[in-house]
Specification:
318 residues; mainly alpha; Serine Threonine Protein Phosphatase 5, Tetratricopeptide repeat; elongated
Length: 318
């Protein structure tokens, strides 16, 4: 009975992984040895409890439960079985959610290395693990280390999904973002342009994904000092975001802020001011006064007023 419960639980775990995140399983692996009845019962309980913790956002509990679950899986299925590797990925994700990125890194690396060995470089689970690690490095500001991972993902997306796929567009944007962070906007520009072309063809000219692509391309042009060319793209992105998300949305506020920054870069501070104020008003309402985006809006408006020679008005804003 315990063995049957173990199998049923493993199948449920596989379905959950496919639906919700890293380390999805195509089928339950063959065990290295049959679990004892106590192990099977404990493992099934840990799976259920971990899923409850994940749904509730109790990341510390998810970490602790998944560590216990992984210990059982390593003994019964082996250290590189898909179910075990899935648990490493979930431990990493739980640590990231707690702000413990440095502790998460070895779990993400371990999952990536195991998937490369057992599934190959182009398997979807390997690409998920690669994405997890690249994102972690980017959150830590380690863009130089993230770049080769993003290049590999872009190449893999073209090979697996096709050069004109939405997945390839997303990989191009992610690689472009890393290059921009490394002060290489000129290399990022063609990647963003390819994403714009792909997503416009795939989803249409009014899709919010296109708004994000246009904003990224415009930001790269701003980095290159091509502000006039960037302005029309920023404005188009703003129009698409207002249509897709409404006026009182964080994505719309970001688009307002980008248009305003572009106008400031052109010395058109009076035109930029009302856009800065709009972005600030939205972010205060939607994100709250203490959010980093709100703080950035406050600083940008203060700098704008100072540039207009209205330093006294800028002081209370700052």
């Amino acid at each position: 009975m315990a063995s049957r419960a173990w199998r049923v639980g493993l199948l449920a775990c596989a379905a959950l992984s496919v639906a919700t995140g890293p380390g999805a399983l195509a089928a339950p692996p063959a065990p290295v040895r049959e679990p004892t009845p106590k192990e099977a019962q404990t493992w099934k309980a840990l799976v259920d409890q971990a899923e409850s913790a994940r749904v509730a956002g109790r990341w510390r509990d998810l970490e602790a439960l998944t560590r216990k679950r992984a210990a059982i899986e390593e003994k019964t299925f082996g250290p590189e079985a898909p179910v075990t590797v899935a648990s490493w990925s979930w431990i990493g994700q739980a640590l990231v959610r707690q702000g413990r990125e440095a502790e998460a890194e070895p779990f993400y690396r371990r999952a990536l290395e195991a998937n490369r060995r057992t599934l190959g470089d182009r398997d979807p689970q390997t690409l998920i693990a690669l994405t997890n690690l690249a994102g972690l490095l980017e959150r830590q500001g380690r863009f130089g280390e993230a770049e080769p991972l993003r290049r590999e993902l872009h190449t893999a997306a073209q090979a697996v999904f096709g050069a004109r796929s939405a997945e390839t567009a997303a990989a191009a944007v992610a690689l472009g973002d890393v290059l921009r962070a490394n002060a290489r906007a000129a290399e990022a520009e063609p990647l963003y342009r390819s994403a714009v072309a792909i997503d416009a063809r795939q989803f249409g000219e009014a899709d919010p994904r296109l708004a994000a692509d246009l904003g990224s391309l415009a930001a790269a042009l701003d980095d290159l000092g091509r502000h006039v060319e960037a302005e029309s793209l920023h404005r188009r992105s703003l129009t698409l975001r207002r249509a897709a998300f409404g006026e009182r949305d964080a994505a719309t506020a970001q688009a307002y802020a980008r248009v305003a920054a572009n106008l400031d870069a052109q010395g058109r501070h009076a035109e930029a001011e009302p856009l800065h104020r709009t972005a600030l008003g939205i972010d205060r309402d939607v994100r709250g006064r203490n959010h980093p985006a709100t703080a950035a809006d406050v600083a940008a408006l203060g700098a704008n007023l100072d540039a207009q020679g209205r330093a006294r008005e800028a002081e209370p804003v700052l």
